[in-house]
Amino acid sequence: MNLKDLNPDSSPQAAFGARLRRVREERGWTQEEFGEKVGYSGTHMSAIETGRKPPTLRFSRSLDRFLGGDAYEREWREMRNGSLLEGFPEYVDYEGRAAEIRLYEVGVVPGLLQTPEYAAALAEGDVRRGAITPDQADEFVSVATERQAVLTRKSPPLLFVVLDESCIRRPVGGTAVMDAQFARLVEFAEQPNTVLQIAPFDMGARRAFTLPITVLTMADRSLMSYAESAHRGHLERETTFVLPILTAYHQLQAEALPQTSSVEMIRQLRKGTP
Predict the structure, then answer these.
(1) Are the C-beta atoms of 55 and 49 separated by less than 8 Å?
(2) Which residue ranges make up each domain of the chain?
(3) Fold category of 88-270 in CATH
């Protein structure tokens, strides 16, 4: 793409690239020179400037460290949030600071536990269906990876996960992708601050939920829940509404398989045993 053909009004990604180009030209740097200063190749800088490649959080932070301030990271977050489900960015902010996270998922392994390959396979499926663009797919995979930083922070949260059996029965991305994802689940279950359970199909009507739900306990012991519809996410902070959901979650845990049996089910699936 010719640099002069880039229209900064065509998309947030194009606006980011145009701004980057303007800053570079004002300082009289070539793309190679600018890239060397911030730790990237000239080819990478060109791809960002022309909108052929979306900027990442790491790239944006590198620019801010060199140039000073936080303008590029803020612009990146605004651009990213524009492609995410309404309400989800606000939830992720609370998730990253939660003391306890309880989640129940149906159909797919949740983002906090996904391998990059599993996340990419899901996103590629959405691209093929025309639900999202390739750039949005890259962003969704990036967001899933960034969220997982909560699991390795200095004081990680207690994380309770109940997966509907459909999450591990649904093939995503082929045998190699699923094998790595199963390994990731087993590894997750072995951590001292986690509990992983499977809600088997034969629970039937005893399941407390039919849709995914998340309950967060913050450091001050306040509660909030998060759920999504097809169009937006909803973060509920009113305790009187969240407490019944927390109670139902405890009931779900009591009915689900214990962690030992859940991990054994996953291991059997890895071996190809029904």
Answers:
(1) no
(2) 3-83, 88-270
(3) Endonuclease; Chain A (3.30.870)
